[in-house]
Design brief:
heterodimer; A: alpha+beta; four-stranded antiparallel β-sheet; B: 415 residues; 13 helices
Chain lengths: 203, 415
């Protein structure tokens, strides 16, 4: 199974890493251990057993997704001005426009970026902001994040003084959503266990 | 007006804490097996006063009472109501009051829900917990009073840090605090256990629920914080190894280890002293993390409330807490057998604890190394992700295999 998963990862990401392979194998072992635990446990729906299995499974999944995320994230750092386009191996980024929006307690410089994935021709519009707050006077950089089932597309922009150019940080991060879900699963296991607390104290 | 009400309520809470300690010692001399009803009443009163004090502070923020310096510094009349309310704990003083609220509420709940435990053990737990409450109340009144007035009264407030104007502020600090401060109750219980020799599975059963509660909330608090940093701070990842993030992770490693070691104590009546060490360490690291973050010793983009003047008080308290708990521990230390069979559930649970200890020391060294480096060599260094990746990832691989322990059998201790 570990070999199959590694081959699938190689095909999906078009790259391979020994470290990620080891992490994936070990996390799969933990996931399988939790599943064996679930099968072997006589009283599967007993809250104590269910909570333990949930947390351990969540931890295994979290390591699995972190392993993939850590090794297969794409990060690009570059400068761009309005109207320009940057081409990379799998995608291109177009800086379409720049707008100013007035809000109650801040003013925002909003950039509009068109991200095109070359393989699938999928298009995403990301709108990062630079906010200027007046109470108190502070500058903040708001990331624009497009969360999908299999990956997050993430973009921030910051101004370069005395220049029309903006510094762009672009990231493609696989399985971000699943890292959060598996981490929540870990704590859910604990919360499930809390249901049984009162009864334990009574014994 | 609200400033005076708040300060008065905090002072009342302080006096009640002294009454509780005194009444506990009086009750210890009483041969009756039940805890005096007076203590329940005092504890309830103490909780009521501190909760009302906290709501007084919330009211000050809601009505934009700028005669309170804390409201003036952290709020603004045009701010949405939601951020006025959650802004109450978005600063050092308000969050310290929230911290004390949790200390007091846990103290009362422990007294209320541990009626099956031995009387002197419960009373000593109450005494130690109230000593902690007193220390934090004194700190609040002397150094960090959220109700301090300001004259003349300003017309408008300075506003809340925009980074904090996020819905996550409503849940992240309270969740983390329940986790951090919740560990105080088993710190007190562990010390009381040493003092009263209330050991084994009875001790394990008495703290298990509290360990679980604090672990659940702390885990969720860390996750919410991590998601917040990803979306709001623009860090671009799930974990940044920032000193403030690390400070929250240190007690988490200990509490996770404790959740596992407590199974050994409850099921096999072993690893008592190790469990005690973890109980003491969990709260000590929670306070250490708070000290590092709030004293301004650690620089982080994540630090929203630091002031070096607080550091000295917290360092003194931390030193006293560590020295007194360690001295009690060594005074009461007795020989304990750990002769387990190699391939047993017991061994794998202990191995889990070794891994947790390793992760703890790795993160601790990475977090405090820049401080020592700056003091000793006057060179500023920052420890970043490469260090953690190199040290932690290789060990994470065998750690995952240790997760097989639930499928192993309990083996009798070899004598």
């Amino acid at each position: 199974m570990a070999v199959f998963i590694n081959v699938a990862i190689y095909i999906y990401f078009s790259s391979y890493s020994i470290l990620s392979s080891l992490i994936i194998i070990s996390s799969l072992c933990l996931i399988l251990s939790s599943l064996i635990d679930a099968i072997k446990t006589k009283d599967k729906f007993n809250i104590v057993n269910f909570s333990r299995i949930t947390s351990h499974l969540g931890f295994g999944l979290m390591i699995f997704f972190i392993g993939i995320n850590h090794n297969f994230s794409i990060e690009k750092d570059f400068n761009l001005k309005v109207g320009e386009e940057r081409n990379f191996k799998d995608f291109k980024i177009n800086f379409s426009s720049l707008d100013i929006k007035e809000n109650k307690n801040y003013k925002a410089i909003v950039g509009k970026f068109l991200i095109t994935e070359k393989k699938s021709n999928n298009k995403n519009i990301l709108e990062p902001e630079i906010r200027i707050y007046n109470k108190p006077e502070t500058l903040t950089y708001e990331a624009s994040i497009r969360t999908k089932f299999s990956s997050d597309t993430y973009l921030t922009m910051s101004n370069i003084s005395r220049s029309d150019y903006y510094n762009i940080k672009f990231q493609k991060k696989p399985f971000m959503l699943w890292i959060w879900i598996s981490a929540i699963l870990i704590s859910m296991g604990g919360f499930i266990r809390l249901i049984k607390i009162k009864k334990i104290n009574e014994i | 007006m609200l400033s005076n009400i708040g300060t008065t309520l905090v002072i009342f809470t302080l006096f009640i804490s002294f009454f509780i300690i005194n009444a506990s010692f009086v009750d210890l001399k009483n041969t009756n097996k039940l805890v005096s009803k007076k203590l329940y009443k005092f504890s309830l009163l103490q909780s009521t006063f501190i909760i009302v004090a906290f709501f007084t502070l919330i009211t000050s923020f809601v009505v934009s009472d700028f005669s309170v310096i804390n409201v003036f510094q952290n709020s603004h009349s045009t701010k949405p109501l939601f951020y006025k309310i959650v802004g109450t704990w978005g600063n050092h003083e308000g969050s310290l009051l929230l911290w004390i609220n949790i200390l007091v509420i846990f103290s009362y709940l422990f007294l209320l829900y541990n009626k099956n435990s031995k009387k002197n053990y419960r009373l000593y737990t109450l005494v130690i917990q109230n000593l902690l409450i007193i220390v934090f109340l004194v700190f609040l009144l002397i150094n960090s009073n959220p109700f301090s007035p300001i004259y003349p009264v300003p017309v408008e407030g300075l506003g809340l840090n925009p980074i904090l104007q996020d819905p996550a502020l409503a849940v992240h600090p309270p969740l983390l605090y329940i986790g951090f401060v919740g560990s105080s109750i088993y710190f007190s219980a562990a010390t009381a256990s040493l003092l009263t020799s209330y050991k084994g599975k009875f001790f394990a059963a008495s703290i298990k629920s509290w360990v679980l509660i604090s672990w659940c909330f702390q885990t969720l608090g860390i996750i919410v914080g991590s998601i917040w940093a990803y979306y709001e701070l623009g860090w671009g990842g799930f974990w940044f190894w920032d000193p403030v993030e690390n400070a929250s992770l240190l007690p988490w490693f200990v509490i996770t280890a404790l959740m596992h070691s407590i199974i050994l104590l409850e099921k096999r009546d072993t690893a008592y002293h190790w469990t005690i060490i973890l109980c003491l360490l969990a709260f000590t690291l929670s306070v250490t993390g708070t000290f590092l973050v709030r004293s301004g010793i650690l620089n982080s983009v994540h630090t929203f409330a630091n002031d070096p003047s607080r550091g000295l008080y917290m360092l003194f308290f931390l030193s006293v807490m560590i020295l007194s708990s360690v001295s009690i521990f060594f005074k009461k230390l007795t020989k304990e057998s750990y002769n387990f069979s190699t391939y047993s559930k017991e061994t794998l649970i202990l191995v889990n604890n070794w891994f947790m200890a390793f992760f703890l020391f790795t993160v601790l060294i990475g977090t405090i190394y820049p401080i020592f480096s700056e003091v000793l060599t006057e060179t500023k260094v920052s420890v970043g992700p490469p260090y953690y990746n190199i040290v932690i990832i290789p060990l994470l691989i065998p750690f995952c295999f240790d997760g097989y322990w639930p499928n192993m059998s309990w083996v009798k201790i070899i004598t």
